[in-house]
């Protein structure tokens, strides 16, 4: 039988195949990138065993578990585990704490299928603790700079061109604004934190000790930034990205209308455009109080006309009306206030090419 594996760094740096034998409800609350859920017990079985443990103790709970997972059910699950082990000879299995569930899976795999699959010592809990420590250590040890700018300047595009860029919105699968929801939904907060931690781990393993990240609120949609990182972001120096109003309108039209509509249609098929339209109208309604009643009504009429024309002819030209008005009347005053408030921390400002060149040079000097 393989010895328990304790090199968590190796697991995440090398994207080792991971078999998570926790119940589906546990997996759905938070998991690791690429992990496959092949549980020892389903949710109902786990609940019954847990109740038995509370009422009658560990031995009775173990006996009940063996009764529930026996015969054809046991054979089916061993077959699934064996399929994973054969497909991934470099894979590992784990449960919540690296205890009884992963021991049983490992033993049954060996006894019934003749296969060895090493267990991760400490299980999910230890691996998660390692990743959260990874974030804390990066915040304490590395150099960070924030990328700010008005809505639509293309901050994410800049980040993705930098080897030391951290795409927080990418990890959260959300564009960060009231209009930022995507067709594919967001990860759980735990999944978001895990993705960010693995990104930091891999970049630091390549010698990167300087990071650029977008100036964000604590929450990106429903995903919250780790508190130490968010607290650090209140002091980090900033670089301010600039672009013309026309350039920003065009970028928002592409990202939030053309590309997002295509994404909805790809995910939802024939009803995709209807769902896209509902999402756009809901997003505008989300800022109704801050817009004020009259302005909200005016922009809503323009958006409804734009969606109707897009649905009829496919043209998106009419959308420019509400996009430009929303920028000039709503977003720009907020960002202008933020720029003034954070002005002392801004060490460079310029358009895309100049900002990328500055950040690359900054990274070389500090990396």
What secondary-structure arrangement, pairings included, does this model have?
Elements: H1 8-13, E1 18-20, H2 24-29, E2 36-37, H3 43-56, H4 58-68, H5 71-87, E3 92-94, H6 100-113, H7 123-141, E4 143-149, H8 155-159, E5 165-166, H9 168-172, H10 189-205, E6 210-214, E7 219-220, E8 223-224, H11 227-233, E9 238-241, H12 245-268, H13 272-286, H14 288-291, H15 293-313, H16 319-341, E10 346-350, H17 352-366
Parallel strand pairs: 1-2, 1-3, 4-6, 4-9, 5-6, 9-10
Antiparallel strand pairs: 7-8
Q: In summary, what is this structure?
A:
The chain is an alpha/beta fold.
List key phrases describing it.
tRNA 2-selenouridine synthase, Oxidized Rhodanese, domain 1, Rhodanese-like_dom_sf, three-stranded parallel beta sheet, 17 helices, 367 residues, five-stranded parallel beta sheet
Describe this entry's structure for a reader.
The structure is a single chain. This protein has 367 residues and is of the alpha/beta class. It has 2 domains: 8-128, 3-Layer(aba) Sandwich (Oxidized Rhodanese, domain 1), CATH 3.40.250; 142-366, no CATH class. The strands form 3 sheets. Strands 5-6-4-9-10 form a 5-stranded parallel beta sheet, sandwiched between helices. The chain has a 3-stranded parallel beta sheet with strand order 2-1-3, covered by helices on one side. The protein has 17 helices and 10 strands. Helix content is 61%, strand content 10%. The protein is globular. Helix 5 packs across helix 6. It has helices spanning 8-13, 24-29, 43-56, 58-68, 71-87, 100-113, 123-141, 155-159, 168-172, 189-205, 227-233, 245-268, 272-286, 288-291, 293-313, 319-341, 352-366, and strands at 18-20, 36-37, 92-94, 143-149, 165-166, 210-214, 219-220, 223-224, 238-241, 346-350.
